[in-house]
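tool_call predict_complex ligand=glycine
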Amino acid sequence: MSTRTIRFSSKATQFYFDSSFAVLEKKVSKENAVLITDDHVFAAHKIKFKGWNTIVLKPGEQYKVQQTVDVVINQLIAFGADRKTFLVGVGGGVITDLTGYIAGIYMRGIDFGFVPTSILAMVDASIGGKNGIDIGVYKNMAGLIRQPSFLIYDYSFLKTLPHNEWQNGFAEIIKHACIKDAAMFKELQLNSIAKYKRDKVLLSALIQKNALIKAKVVVGDEFEQGDRKLLNFGHTLGHAIENMYELSHGEAISIGMTYAALISQQLKFFTGTAELVALLHRYGLPTVADFDQAKAFKVLLKDKKKDHVSIQYILLTKIGKGVVQPILLVQLKEIFKLF
Ligand code: GLY
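tool_result ok
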């Protein structure tokens, strides 16, 4: 096990890498805690939940909505949860988002921690404190920024992770490589999901590296005034098309990264589009899509990174170097027409 403490503005979060679910008992007592998970994780790892108060939700992004929040809050009331109750989200990004959000509003805020069970949650969704819900097709439209007390990494959860979920997680890993880490981009070019599944040491090092890339960016800019925006590489278009077409998050941002690379080619003389496309394909991710541009543009106009005239798009100057680029909306509309 390797433990790292990351200090955010209002909280120090402990990261237990290469750890075990059993560590949870050292962090919180069974009487005081309520675990939130989904059907898939619960069915595959029932034994781990023995003796814990657990709320089991239906899996899927379509349940990351206010109605689920109301259901969970009613169950917390039924459990007699109070301000000292500790919530633990055990699952992928939907579960960690819901848990963090509910912990932020239940009785005006209670403590919480995460046991991320998917690659995507381990390297991205459980880190950073942004927790929220979708409103219609608008992703994460309601939410807050509030940090968990701990994250416990138990890689035994990955044994039952479906292959498409590995691809989802690697989309975020490739994103980190694109914006921050050219050496990791090279490492990914030499390996594959199959190799990471076989080589636990390699996988564990990759997960830790990515979790720390994300945490470091967030620590430097927790409330997204600058560098944190880079983490949105591929997400501007990605979020717009994700719920429109019921794409997985990885598929959506993979397409979003490809379009962002093409825009980078035009505005930043970026020359790595072919390399990026090849890497995304290597990890089973899509790079092109037929989508209703006018409709996607309309959804994109609701993006949180936009003002009346421009949007802050994340582009690449080279592999490993992301930049925030304001683009006039009229200009972006014209660029989109070219693809
Ligand atoms: N919960 C994901 C983030 O804060 O970016």
